[in-house]
Amino acid sequence: MIKTVYLSDVGRVRSVNEDCTWVDRLEQGYTLGVVADGMGGHQAGDVASSLAVETITRDLAGLPGGLSVRDFGEELRKAILHANEVVFRKASEHEEYRNMGTTVVAVLLAGRDGMVGHIGDSRAYKYRRGEIVQLTDDHSLVNELLKSNQISAEEANVHPHRNVVTRALGTDEQVDVDMNRVTLEPGEILLLCSDGLSNYVTPEQMTLTLGLDDLALYDRADRLLQMALHAGGDDNISIALLEQHEDAGSGTKEWNS
């Protein structure tokens, strides 16, 4: 069974939390997790992220059981694309929301098998046996510069435009969703997060924290959050953890501030 926890914090600088995070067990045995990081200023960013999460969760709530990974992955992709339509239409119809958008990273699991869909620079990581692997590839200016060898990894970490995304949900009528298959074995953890975590907490710190088996899953998530806050907390911070267990227990917690 999957144990889950999610946390979101406004950080030390921002006055509004434009992130929206949701994890829960759906009908027919699926587990869905979503992290969205809104943008647009004023109230537009939090409207965009909330609309995206609401649309995705609503579209997948009645998913029939017994679907193959390919089929329920396609349903996740369609739900994300529908969220793009909803956010784009809202931004087009209301001047105060013009140009708003959001990143999104979402996972849909059935048992040990699942699919990850993402747009933007919110990330998915997989932790296993003392190692962490980033599953998603940022749609960001800095990542494009890094892949073309125009900047180094060290420069990317401090680049003044590291928050600029090259692809977002809701800013254009059409958008592509990157999809990746994932398998979660017992003891392995899937981490979804906004860049408020990944820009301030290193993969090495994530690995050490997630490997603290003596800490409850919630406490490990909270420790990651506190690390981001202590590193500056200049952005909203959102974290979702999904841990695979052999036992029959499962549950979801949340904590927001």
What integer is the average pLDDT?
91
Oligomer: single chain
Q: Name the poorly predicted regions.
A: none
Q: Enumerate the strands of the largest sheet in spatial order, edge to edge or round the barrel.
A: 7-6-9-10-1-11
CATH superfamily: PPM-type phosphatase domain
CA-CA gap between termini: 28 Å
- Strand count: 11
How do the SSEs run, as a string of H and E? EEEHHEEEEHHEEHHHEE
Number of helices: 7
Instruction: Write down the domain tally.
Output: 1
- Helix- and strand-based class? alpha+beta
What does this structure look like?
This protein is α+β, with helices and mostly antiparallel strands and 257 residues long. It has a six-stranded mixed β-sheet with strand order 7-6-9-10-1-11. The protein has a five-stranded antiparallel β-sheet with strand order 2-3-4-5-8, covered by helices on one side. The chain has one domain (2-244): Phosphatase 2c, domain 1 (4-Layer Sandwich), CATH 3.60.40.10. 32% of the residues lie in helices and 30% in strands. Strand 4 and strand 5 (113-119) form a beta hairpin. The chain has seven helices and eleven strands. The mean pLDDT is 91. Helix 1 runs antiparallel to helix 2 and helix 6 (203-210) runs antiparallel to helix 7 (217-230).
Lay out the secondary structure:
Elements: E1 2-9, E2 19-25, E3 30-39, H1 44-60, H2 69-93, E4 101-110, E5 113-119, E6 123-128, E7 131-134, H3 141-147, H4 153-158, E8 178-183, E9 189-193, H5 195-198, H6 203-210, H7 217-230, E10 237-244, E11 251-256
Parallel strand pairs: 1-11
Antiparallel strand pairs: 1-10, 2-3, 3-4, 4-5, 5-8, 6-7, 6-9, 9-10
